[in-house]
Structure formats: structure tokens, C-alpha cells
Amino acid sequence: MKASARLVVERDSAGRSVVRELRSMSPLTLVPRRSLLANATGPALVHLVSSATAPLGGDDLELSVLVGPGAHLRLHGVAATLALPGHRPGGSRMTLHLQVADGGRLEYLPEPTVVTARADHHAELCADLAGDARLRCREVLVLGRSGERPGRLRSDIRLTRDGDPLLRQRLDVGDPTLDSTPAHLAGHRVLATELLVWGADPAEPVSGDWWSLAPLARGGSLATVLADDTVAADRMLRTALAAHPGLDKAEAGTADGVTRVAGIA
Amino acid sequence: MDVLEVTGAAAVLSLADSRFPGGGHVHSGGLEEAVARGLATDERQLASFLYGRLRTAGELAAVFAAAATHAARQRADRKTWIELDVELDARTPSPAQREASRAQGRGTARAGRAAWPNPVLDDLLAVTPRPHHPVTVGALVGIAGGTPRQAALSVTYLSVSGPASAAVRLLGLDPFGVNAVVVSLSPEMERIAAEAAEQAELPATELPAPNAPALDLFAEAHDRIHREEVRLFAS
Q1: Which residues of A are less than 8 Å from B44 in CB distance?
Q2: Phi/psi at A18 (nearest 5 deg)?
Q3: Predicted ipTM?
Q4: Of B49, B210, B223, the CB nearest to A170
Q5: Nearest residue on chain B to A160, judged by CA atoms?
Q6: Across the interface, which of B40, B96, B208 has its CB nearest the CB of A182?
Q7: Where is the composition biased (Low complexity) (chain B) (predicted)?
Q8: pLDDT tens per residue across span B49-106
């Protein structure tokens, strides 16, 4: 299956973030969830729903998201993504292009991706920010369903601001020899990362045994967590995010009973 | 091509020598933290740690060293050195690892300036007085007449030889056994170096960016604990 979806959010003359363009293409279905009663100046809320079993081997999916000057978009997933093997060779591919204009804000908080047995998936994220645009981008990878050996997944992240590279990473999981080494995943089943270009970065890195929040060299910061299950990953990711000076308690998921870190439970 | 059959071979041997005065001996590449957590306590676990390090940090060092050698051989302008510096920073999210790389790059550049004085090295150091280690090694190999593949092989070897000798000091492992573990990784080192050399002419933005989450976490934890209690190694 080859699919390309597109979402454009802009700020209107009244200061509201509105969805200007929304083009779904199965299996990438975009569902705007903005309530009429919501705070008029709050973010536009869109859910990304998979309307078919995807990604399967042979799938090539692409989602482009543009956030205009001063606009705010929160893009959520509603269910875990299962990377599955398909009948066609060549693996599956999901490419996400994010563009945020000066003064715009984009939160991309999908549910975890589970790398099932014999999957061969390539996830690519390209994000371009302009000026003081803000971005939060989470990725939670689960190696196999319970008791299952994972297939292969390659994740590529490329983040630039005004053309300057802030973060470039390639992560390969599902190679049993590499996953088990103490240097790579040290035998953990869940890897959670959150990339933040969201106001001030921490002046110093903050870390625990299996999590860290590290300021990048040229702006932005990266939270990294290795855990044995998604509950522990959720807890450590919240701890890491709580140390980020740009996030308030609700945004970090540490306000009592209000917000959990979406996507992981 | 045999690694010793072109000019620059002695430079390559010198740069990969543990006695090269670049300050590499104070770094364990995350091994001390792995040892402190009980994750690398015997030869078998050490072999696994080194293999994971080679496939990630080793590959990253290899592609930047190879690209720097190519740049030095082309008498690259300062813009090229800035691009390599910025792109390697973007591929090193851990501040502790950036610091370890720049500390060793600085030490290597000082020793290199005495051994291979050259305007190309002056240009690199004008861009940053503390260049990343693989970029520095790559530039020096290029200045000495060596090839991208030689530079890649040097840093690939260093990515495991440093932690291996740290293991002997931290764990009291049998030096013969540890040396045999390093040698057993030779085919993988040579494969990574050859692939890095093939990509040496790519623009810096397109160079591979392999990452190792556990090494990032070890580097940060080591740095945090190092401030509170004495550790044998700086990283």
C-alpha cells in the first residue's frame, strides 16, 4: 500500500489554530478533534488513526505536517502501531515530514510502535523548524509483543532549525546480537525518546541509571529511556521531562492525575 | 589495498598506538560505568560490549574520520571543517560524549601539530580549538598522506582498544584473553572501515548517524557519578 497524507494548521485572524488542509489517505486517517467549547486559543487537536492494518511489508506511507506562524497543533495517536511482516518483499516504510514556522508549535505524541516478529520497518522523521518554532516529538519502540522476538526496525531522525542540524540519529533494533550488548540496548525491551525544542533547555544534563535528559549541542534536548516494559518507560520518561525547564507540570505529565504521558501505559 | 602499502602508514600506526600522547588513556568509552553496574564483568560480556560499541560508536567515528581524511587530502576550506564539526555534534546527543570526543581531539591535535605541522591542521584548529577526535585523526592521516580507509580503521580500532585496556585495569582480566577478544573483532572492524571509506566523499549532512542508547546513558551516568566520587577514567 502506498499512501500520502497531509495536514496544514494555521493561525487565523482571531488567533485560533485552525486546520486549513486535511488530506487523509488510507491507512493514514486524520481526525480533527477540536471541541467548540475548547479554549479558543488552545492547540488544534488531531488524531492520527490507522484505518487498516499497517504498516505491512511493502507499505510506503508518508505524512506531511505543516504548522504555520503562531499556530499550535497537537497530533496524537489513538492506538499502538504494530509493525508487521507482509506478503510483499522490501519491508515497510513510514516517513514523516514536519515543518514548523516561526512562532509555531507542534506536539507529535504517537502511541508506541511494536516491532513484531519478522517485521522489517523503516521509520523516518524529518523535522524542519524556523526561528523560535517549538517541537515535541516522542518515539516509543517496543521490541516484540509479549514473549515475542522482534523483527527489524530502523529509525532515522533528522532535525534542523533554520537549516542547521540539531539532531541526526539512526537507530537499528531487532538484531539479536546487537540488541543484547551492554552498549546498545543492554537487553531492554522498550526504548523511549522524546525530542524537545521547547523553550529553555536544561543548563546541565540530568540523568538516572536508565534515563537521561540531555541538552543538544546547538539547541533542543533529548530525553532517552531504556526500560523492560512500557509502564517503567512511562515513569522514567515523566521523570526526565519533569527536569525540562521549558515544560510546565501538565505538559511534563507530572501534574497529579491530570495528564499521563500520552501513549504509554 | 593493504593498510601498510601506501604513504602515511607510520602515521596511522602512531595514531592508533596506545602510547600516542593524545590523552586517550584516561577514557574507557563507557566501560567503567558498565563494569560498575555489573554488566561487563567477564571476557564474554566484555566481548559483547566491545561488539556493540564497534557497531555504533565505532562506525560513527569511522565515517567522520574517513570524511576528514578526504577533506584534508582535498585541502578543504574552513566551511568543510565547520560542517564536519556541526554534523558530528548533531550525531552525539550526550554532552559527556561530546566532551570526551573534544578532549581527545584537542590532545591529539596538540601532539599532531608537533608531528605533522600543516596549514590544513591550522585551518581545522581555527574553526575550533577542540575538534572532535575522529575528525582530528582523519585530518592528520590525510595530512600524512594516508587514505580514508586507513583513518577509519585507526579510529575503529581505537573505539574498542581503549575500552579493552580499561577492562584489564578495572577487572583484572587476563591481558592475553582481552587482546584475543579485540583481535577477534578484526573482520568487523575492517568491514566498517571499508564501508566508511566508500562514503568519505559524501556531504557531511549525508554521513551515517548510528546511535547506541545505552552508551549515551552510561556516559551521562559516569559523568554524574564522577563528580561525586572518584572514578578511574574520565569517561
Answers
A1: none
A2: -125, 150
A3: 0.94
A4: B210
A5: B90
A6: B40
A7: 102-113
A8: 999 999 999 999 999 999 999 999 999 999 999 999 999 999 999 999 999 999 999 9
